[in-house]
Design goal:
The chain is an alpha/beta fold. Helix content is 40%, strand content 17%. The chain is built from eleven helices and 14 strands. Strands 3-2-1-4-5-6-11 form a seven-stranded parallel sheet, sandwiched between helices. Strands 12-9-14 form a three-stranded mixed sheet. The protein is globular and about 55 Å long.
């Protein structure tokens, strides 16, 4: 590896970003984090330092602020960017579409503008399986048609398009689009994990709230889907596997030009009740649940075909569903969330 490359991690104090920061530092990279702590906490920076022994450089800025971002690039020799910053709640995006379009697209546009000014040509973009819309068949491959069912998803798909067009116009640009499936779990130390503000949007934190006694039951949205038990099926991937995929993508970006797209998933679909049962078994805790109506915009089944990432990036998910459940609960017990 070249001598101490410096990676800018936008949204680096968030759930996904903090795990990537740890992996980058452990792999010998310098890490600069840009985060406005909209959905994260400054104490995460202390936790990253506690795990790695290295404190990442932090800029408490909003990536949509052009001058603040430019100052960061002036003060650091950035070699590549992993772009995670953005609003990410599907339900909220339906209620506040203009907020989502303005924030998520301006962040990406700003970043590309400043990268071009400073001659930075490598970017890994945090995209999402939501860009596949309502899939006609599963598993999902990277060449399947894209469309979206909510504004959050559209901001990811539009972000992909912006980056694709930028790469067409700048032949030196290397763009890696990573389409995440459903990240769960936490760092083995229990020091960093998913800590949503308010009511969790995602299944595992909700289950953990119930396990901790913070909520008396889990609401399962829909039990009439055309799946084996009527509940929605998703591809749950351990956060440590998702994080390692970013490092592989970053390595791949070193020698690439143009745009590459990869699914980051396990290739296995689990229903909501599969996850509930696995959590109960892994942690010996009963999770009461009640069925409620489907959520608008949810699809019946969504899981990845991860073969391309294995063939090209030499990456695959290695952590089990049991580990996802154990690590999520370990983290929950160590936090006051």
């Amino acid at each position: 590896m070249p001598e101490k490359e410096t990676v800018l991690l936008t949204g680096g104090a968030g759930y996904i970003g903090s795990h990537i920061a740890v992996d980058l530092i452990d792999s010998g990279y310098n890490v600069v984090i840009a985060d406005n702590f909209d959905n994260s906490s400054p104490e995460v920076i202390d936790r990253i330092e506690e795990i790695t022994g290295v404190r990442p450089i932090l800029y408490e800025i909003d990536v949509t602020n052009e001058e603040d971002l430019r100052q960061l690039f002036k003060e650091n020799q950035i070699d590549s960017v992993i772009h995670l910053a953005g609003l990410k709640a599907v339900g909220e995006s339906v209620e506040l579409p203009l907020k989502y379009y303005s924030n998520n697209l301006n962040a990406t546009l700003n970043l590309l503008k400043i990268m071009e000014e400073f001659g930075v040509n490598k970017i890994v973009f945090s995209s999402s399986a939501t860009v596949y819309g309502v899939p006609e068949t599963v598993p999902l491959t990277e060449d399947m048609p894209t469309s979206c069912t909510n504004p959050y998803g559209w901001t990811k798909l539009m972000g992909e398009q912006i980056l694709t067009d930028a790469a067409k116009a700048n032949e030196d640009l290397s763009v890696i689009l990573l389409r995440y499936f459903n990240p769960v779990g936490a760092h083995k130390s229990g020091l960093i994990g998913e800590k949503p503000n308010g009511i969790p949007n995602n299944l595992m934190p909700y289950i953990c709230d119930v396990a901790k006694g913070k909520r008396d039951h889990l609401s399962v949205f829909g039990n009439d889907y055309p799946t084996k038990d009527g509940t929605g099926v998703r591809d749950y991937i351990h956060i440590l596997d998702l994080s390692s995929g970013h490092l592989k993508a970053l390595e791949y970006a070193q020698d690439q030009k143009g745009v590459s797209v990869f699914n980051l998933g396990t290739g296995t679909g689990y229903s909501v009740l599969d996850i509930v049962n696995a959590f109960e078994k892994a942690n010996n805790i009963k999770i009461p649940y009640e069925f409620t109506p489907r959520r608008e915009g949810d699809v019946a089944e969504c899981y990845a075909d991860p073969k391309k990432a294995l063939e090209i990036l030499d990456w695959q998910a290695v952590h089990s569903l049991e580990e996802m459940c154990q690590d999520s609960w370990n983290w929950t017990q160590k936090t006051n969330s």
